[in-house]
Amino acid sequence: MIKALFRRPFSVVLMGIGALAMLVPSIHAFVIDDDTVGRAFLHSSVLFFVLALFITLATANYTQGHRSRGYLMSLLAAFLVLPIMLAVPMYEAVPQMTFFEAWFETVSSITTTGATLYDSPRDLPPSVHLWRAFLGWLGGLLIWIAAISILAPLNIGGFEVRAMGTGDRTYAQIGRVSDPSERLIRFGAKLVPLYTALTLMVWLMLTATGEVPFVALCHAMSVLATSGISPVGGVIFSPAGFAGEFVILVFMVFALSRVSFSRGLSGLEMRPLHKDSEFRMALSLISLLTLVLFVRHALIAFESDAINSAQQAARAVWGALFTITSFLTTTGFESADWSATRNWSGLGSPGLMLVGLSLIGGGVATTAGGIKLLRVYALWKHGQREIERLVHPSSVGGAGAEARQIRRHGAQIAWIFFMLFTISIAAVMVLLALSGVQFETAMVLAVAALSTTGPLAAIAGETPISYAGLPDFAKAVLAFAMVLGRLEALAIIALLNPGFWRR
After folding, report:
1. Distance of CA 367 to the CA centre of its chain
2. What is the dihedral of CA 70, 364, 360, 271, to 10 degrees?
3. Residues 6 or more apart from 213 whose CB is under 8 A from it?
4. Which of 52, 60, 125, 497 could form an SS bridge with 16, CB 3.0 to 4.6 Å?
5. Residue 352, SS3 per DSSP
């Protein structure tokens, strides 16, 4: 039955899943006696599930020629068109919200960006906060499954860096190439239980540290999805304190490398996590920046005779470590001790560093956005090799065929993606400038949207940037930028290039 269901258009399947997902906030609203919100979600769920059922019956004999292209288009529709349906119950549940605002909130949630038009969490009912966090969680799960099932066989989404040459090697199975629906079922059966179990573990551990169960659940879903959505305004307002932040930091590893959860799937690397190039690159960046930030603050504090206790210094180190890791994974949670890092030396927030971390992003085929660590690693190895050749022109690059491939073809394709990403930032900034947004604000917002790090706007600038104060045109530009950042430019270019499908 499941195989027959996935032979229907993938967008229809996602529509049915989205309709059923509306039951979760509906049940929660009825439990807390918020009947108005509960009815809005329940009626929307029944309406759209019946509509999805009718479409499923109407497409019983549906056949698709370009299966991979159809699934890629369905992914684009899931992040751009499907939010129109998912925004309906939110629009009905919040009287002061316009439908455009509801669509923006839904796009931001399902793309795991986490940007919101409501600066005060009290402006939205608890069940709507749950819906936003749940949408982000579902969007992260979709990326987990689609990256291995759809993007990996096409050598896009970051997998092109390790591809051998011009298509001689892909991550598809040897022999008969499996249908995308078969891969979705196979990998979904493995990843859905794992994703759910990890979320439950975070939820239970956060609750054990003293967090309110409802808030702990929203934070748990936001950590696994790297959406940064919080019903209380972030972990900085959480009573869990250091213990809660430590739990969150541990589970951020799943956004640093796909080896942490999908090792061996579809021919992926079987190497241990500590030998994975992405994970080692992430640890190097986190350690280096934490050390630099600490030394920078320590020197200023020493010069101003502001050195306090070792406990305050430890808080400063922890605040830097947690916040740097959070923005590298594009989660966007700010540590409660991040202010201690700044106050210790009296310096302002190094927002430009957080912008750079969000640009780099997490691992390939994870829920993190950004350029991705594997592409940065390929450019780093290529630059390292070029410097070696300047010093020793007759030297021979070693480390195996795969490493040489990353330095050559991988570095070239990574550089192309880097240029596409920077051009996208420039284009979004120009469009935001046309709507009257200032240059610095436009830069932060463009990076926040394309790297799917919505909370970056509140911390990277000299003053917090409110999405609510933007013109509607700027909000629409940012929503499309979120979709572009989530699906990546190479995937959309492949979708629009007919020659890609003829090869």
Report:
1. 4
2. -170
3. 203, 207
4. 52
5. helix
**CA quadruple 367, 457, 491, 13: dihedral, nearest 10:** 60
Extract the tokens encoding 199. Answer: 């979320």
d(CA 307, CA 300): 9
**Smallest Cα–Cα separation from 131: which of 46, 234, 211, 26?**
26
H or E stretch at 248: helix 241-251
Which of 163-177, 219-233, 258-272, 438-452 has the lowest average pLDDT? 163-177
Q: What is the 3 state secondary structure string of 50-72? A: HHHHHHHHHCCCCCCCCHHHHHH
Collapsing DSSP states into helix, strand and coil, what is residue 366? coil
Sign of torsion over alpha carbons 388, 394, 400, 404: positive
Residue type, 76: L
**pLDDT range class, residue 171, cuts 50, 70, 90:** very low
Distance between CA 141 and CA 149 in Å, rounded?
A: 12
What average pLDDT does range 463-472 have in this prediction? Answer: 93
Q: Which ranges of 346-410 would DSSP assign to H, the alpha helix?
A: 351-360, 373-391, 400-405
Residue with tokens 């990277």: 460
Token digits of residue 33: 């006696």
Over residues 314-330, mean pLDDT: 91
Report angle CA 200, 158, 11 to the nearest 5 degrees.
65
On whether the CB atoms of residues 13 and 6 are closer than 8 A, the answer is yes
Among candidate residues 208, 165, 171, 105, the one with its CA nearest the CA of residue 454: 105
- Is the Cβ–Cβ distance between 370 and 362 less than 8 Å? yes
- Count, residues in the chain: 503
Percent helix, percent strand, percent coil in the chain, to nearest 5 = 70, 0, 30
pTM attached to this predicted model: 0.91
